[in-house]
Amino acid sequence: MYDVNRVREDFPILTRQIYGRPLVYLDNGATTQKPRQVVEAMVDEYYNVNANVHRGVHFLSQQATELHEASRETVRRFINARSTAEIVFTRGTTESINLLAFSLGEAMVKEGDEVVVSAMEHHSNIVPWQMMCERKGAQLRVIPMTDEGELQLEALEGLLTKRTRIVCCTQVSNVLGTVNPVKEVVRIAHEKGVPVLVDGAQSVPHMPVDVQDLDCEFFAFSGHKVYGPTGVGVLYGKEEWLDKLPPYQGGGEMIKNVTFEKTTYNELPYKFEAGTPDYVATHALAKALDYVSGLGMEKIETHEQELTRYALERLQAIEGMHIFGAAQQRDAVISFQVGNIHHLDMGTLLDRLGIAVRTGHHCAEPLMRRLGIEGTVRASFGLYNTKSEVDALAEGIERVRRMF
Ligand code: PLP
Q1: CATH of domain 40-293
Q2: With pLDDT > 90 as the criterion, what percentage of the chain qualifies?
Q3: Is the pLDDT assigned to residue 56 strictly greater than 90?
Q4: For the segment 212-246, what is each residue's pLDDT rounded down to a tens digit?
Q5: Which CATH number fits domain 4-27+296-403: 2.160.20.80, 3.90.1150.10, 3.40.50.2000, 3.50.40.10?
Q6: Kind and range of the H or E element at 93?
Q7: Is the pLDDT confidence value at 151 over 90?
Q8: Which end of the chain is more exposed for a tag (fewer CB within 10 A), N or C?
């Protein structure tokens, strides 16, 4: 049994009142709230352990290093990577993708080469590739989608050429909630010998992820979207691929030997981790992953799927409701507009009722253009949301609708 009321007790913020009403937090796609277990781990480390990692002989440094490296093992287990050498700590999904776009660009992209992204990517899985393409004289190609918000995989085969260097695709759309068949994307790309990056920012918090099963070369996600701290994320890469790529940033930790004539680089994953890592955040991220694993990712997924089905039912019953995206496989994200009420007005008025949703283009302007709109209201659910919160959302929307 998944006891959502028991789970909510771990999140002190959920007892807050906003404008005198109980907080209904439905902005989990942007960031999730943190359980006590995560915050307390951070406080405990700062109060009792803090010392810089890797270079110290003293007790605290060794203890901090052990926590940091144990966190890498927790991440490895969580996404089922083969080795901790394949787990690079970054500041988040955005930095993971920038790292990869830079390093892969340096190692293997030449003028006239191509990079494939999908029509529903977040800016962070478009712009770093675009920047790299500009630098290298390469071209960006786009996998189109249907009006329902599903990728047109038959078009992907046609997009792959001898010049394609990588395919980049999100596992779950942060706007439409579409769960993309990334395993199939990987299979199609591999037939042409092309590596694949999966953006897992919106999948890791909601479903079990197994990178060996997906067989993707690279996978990126953020700590703060999976109940962990801000400022930490992960780039997973198959060892044989990370080995081929040059470092992203230079500095301490990423080197083996430095002379003024020449520097040699450290082994994986440290080659990609210049400077002092946020070791308190990596430790707290491991606590967050332990926390969701303790609840059970399958149970979280079932709870959120049920909540999403219920929310779709309630929202669809509202007059003038338009929900964007109708994919067969969908996750805990619902984007909508009601009549001609501007998304900003809807968001602002819902806020007055204590309901936190996100409004705007959700960092996916090309997708907005594809849908022919400027923005949406987005409700996104997390492991602590309840049906009565969905009711509050539906009633809130209805109230705003009547006002207009
Ligand atoms: N990719 C997707 C699909 C996202 O939804 C987001 C954030 O909303 C990102 C990437 C960027 O994540 P971050 O801002 O944590 O780097």
Answers
A1: 3.40.640.10
A2: 99
A3: no
A4: 999 999 999 999 999 999 999 999 999 999 999 99
A5: 3.90.1150.10
A6: helix 93-108
A7: yes
A8: N
| Most informative mutation of 27, 89, 124, 127 for ligand 1 (most atoms within 8 A of CB) | 124
Would you list the domain boundaries of the chain?
4-27+296-403, 40-293
- Helices and strands (H and E) in the chain: how many: 14, 17
User: Which residues' Cβ are closer than 6 Å to ligand 1?
Assistant: 92-94, 122, 124-125, 170, 174, 199, 201-202, 222
Find all residues with CB under 8 Å of 226, minimum gap 6, and list them.
32, 204, 205, 285, 288, 289, 292
Question: CA 31 → CA 116, 221, 382, distances in Å?
Answer: 27, 12, 10
Distance 124 CA to ligand 1 centre (A): 7
Q: Where are the alpha helices (DSSP H) in 296-386?
A: 297-316, 343-352, 365-371
CB 126 within 8 Å of CB 197: no
Q: Pick from 28, 129, 225, 376 the residue to mutate for probing ligand 1's pocket: most ligand atoms within 8 Å of its CB.
A: 225
DSSP 8-state symbol, 284: H
**What's this model's pTM, rounded to 2 decimal places?**
0.98
Distance (Å, whole) CA 381 – CA 272: 33
Cα separation values, 355 from 43, 389, 396, Å: 29, 9, 8
